[in-house]
Amino acid sequence: MKGKHRFKPGVVDALEERLTLNGAKTTLYASPILEGLRPRSRELSRATTTLTAQVNQAFDSFQADYAQARGTYFASLQADPASAETAHTAFLAYTSQRTSLLSQQLAGGFIQTPTGGSGRSGPSASLRALLSSKIGSNQSGSLLKSLTDTTPTAIASAPTITLYTLGQDNAIASARTAILNSVSVVRAGGLGARAH
């Protein structure tokens, strides 16, 4: 004869999975206190993230990479002022390449939305224009132009370097905000939407 099986809940036994409005699955736990005992993954997968999260992830990565390169550039100016022109040229090339990568990462996120791209042929013309004007062009108001215009060519005082750094950080924040604002347009079907 089989004995009775009693339910013995574990510390992190999940109650059930729920589907949220943004399509991501969440798991409810027995107690909000116990929820913190189960670490959540910090990695973003393309299948479960929202477009906003992808934009933020791309900009966070850009900002961290750019800050590291900028620090290296300023250190090279202090270490060898005679090679300032060479360091400036190399840093501007890095800036151009990294903003191009950011633009491509953003285009990839937009293409995955139902109204963000044109399928196999790539992003729509309006999406390409937006990313070009806000990120990668050398026109006034773009991220690339703002970053290159605020890059000193020679060593400066610490307060001046701080002002350059703040100006560049504000340019990155401004570009992020412009792209995040366009996310709501994409969701509404306005950017890159195709008439059928």
Please tell me about this protein's structure.
The protein has 196 residues and is mostly helical. It has a domain at 51-187. The protein has helices at 32-35, 51-79, 84-111, 125-136, 143-149, 158-187; strands spanning 14-19, 25-29. The chain has a two-stranded antiparallel ribbon with strand order 1-2. The protein is extended, with a radius of gyration of 23 Å. The model is unreliable at 28-48 and 118-122 (pLDDT under 50). It comes from Paludisphaera mucosa. This is Flagellar hook-associated protein 2 C-terminal domain-containing protein.
Strand content: 5-15%
Number of helices: 6
Radius of gyration: 23 Å
> Percent of residues in helical segments?
55-70%
Q: What overall geometry do the principal axes of the alpha carbons give? A: extended
Quantity of strands, as a count? 2
Mean pLDDT: 75
Neighbour order of strands in the largest sheet = 1-2
Unreliable spans are 28-48, 118-122
Terminus-to-terminus distance: 67 Å
H/E order of the elements?
Answer: EEHHHHHH
Protein name: Flagellar hook-associated protein 2 C-terminal domain-containing protein
Organism: Paludisphaera mucosa
Outline the fold blueprint:
Elements: E1 14-19, E2 25-29, H1 32-35, H2 51-79, H3 84-111, H4 125-136, H5 143-149, H6 158-187
Antiparallel strand pairs: 1-2
Helix pairs in contact: 2-3, 2-6, 3-4, 3-5
